[in-house]
Amino acid sequence: MASVSLILGFVSTIIPFVCAGFDPSSSGNIAVYWGQNSYGQGSGSFAQKNLAYYCSNTDIDIIPVAFMNGITPPITNFANAGDNCTAFPDNTNLLNCTQISNDIKTCQKTYGKTILLSLGGATYTQGGWSSTGDAQNAAQTVWNMFGPLTGVQIDRPFGDAVVDGFDFDFESTVNNLPAFGAKLRGLMDAAVDKKYYLSAAPQCVFPDAADGTTLDSVAFDLVLVQFYNNWCETSNFQVGSSTQTAFNFDVWDNWAKSSLNPHVKVFLGIPANTGAAGAGYTSGSQLKAAIAYSKQYSSFGGVMMWDMSQLYANSGFIEEVASDLSVSSSPTATTTTTMVTVTVSTTSSSGPSSSGGTLVAQWGQCGGQGYTGPTQCQPPYNCVSGGQYWSSCQ
């Protein structure tokens, strides 16, 4: 039967913090997307199983749940896992998923996993928002739906379960995405119950056409770069070559070091099976060499795979990846990449002030605990606090 909206009471006590799976100090994290059953089996051993089943795998640290494929209005799609959900009566495209709710709590409390909600996906077609205000309101809605309980009356697909953060997997232009991201970042940083993470999954081509501007104007904790379906994919890594002419992890490492969060971790995103994500599946000695090469860069955070159903249909692959990640690497990278980059001009790029300093662009960081960068905004914007760790130009 159809369920009703939850009327959530304010929780005055602080939820005990449980260490999640993502380790920002590690280069051995493994992230695997769950929710889309891309292997395509409706039944049998290779059909997508419930979330908690996979959380018991000790090799997996981070699971982005895919997808919230509509934001305004909200839409969710979890493939066959949605068969165990019921639609909210006021929005039949939004699913109330008690099983996923229970599994998220099990994954976090029993197995210590980091559970992210992935926004977008290839079927996202809403195109974003017509104004920054609309984008900010949408971010607030997403936070109310999946963040800590606040007493707001709203449909919560995962009930009282609270995700550990959000992943941006937008694969086409999303208007006012920087404003959406900055607002969500501010809400996350202002929360006191636990640390929340912001992730993105851009294509390896740099800069990413859909997410590039947002990556440059919002602080991310991890970036799950899709090194597949493009000329810069892992299958084009040249084993033993002193120069990489296609594979471009070094370019992403350079971006990471100059980003709003210079400690952001960059993941090597790969298909988990042949045909799992189009082109680019790599295994064996070539994958091992590509991981070893990438590990030489200080921003390297681990490997991301698409997706869980493909992974479990590819016997021994996660053990191979975990083994490759465990191999120590030399402290510095000596190889270089020759590539063509596309420059995207925007009106929100930072520029020099009349006094010779740097003015922060709209939605860029201008303050917060530990922040040491410029604090003055480009006119007509002002530096607005979004919490203890984040202030941005608005």
Automatic annotation (TrEMBL):
Pfam families linked to this entry: CBM_1, Glyco_hydro_18
KW Isomerase (keyword) present: no
Enzyme Commission identifier(s): 3.2.1.14
Domain GH18: 28-328
GO molecular function: cellulose binding; chitin binding; endochitinase activity
GO biological process: chitin catabolic process; polysaccharide catabolic process
Signal sequence, renumbered to the chain: 1-20
Presence of keyword Hydrolase: yes
Function as written in the Swiss-Prot or TrEMBL entry: GPI-anchored chitinase involved in the degradation of chitin, a component of the cell walls of fungi and exoskeletal elements of some animals (including worms and arthropods). Required to reshape the cell wall at the sites where cell wall remodeling and/or cell wall maturation actively take place such as sites of conidia formation.
Name of the protein: chitinase
Phylogenetic placement of the source organism: Eukaryota, Fungi, Dikarya, Ascomycota, Pezizomycotina
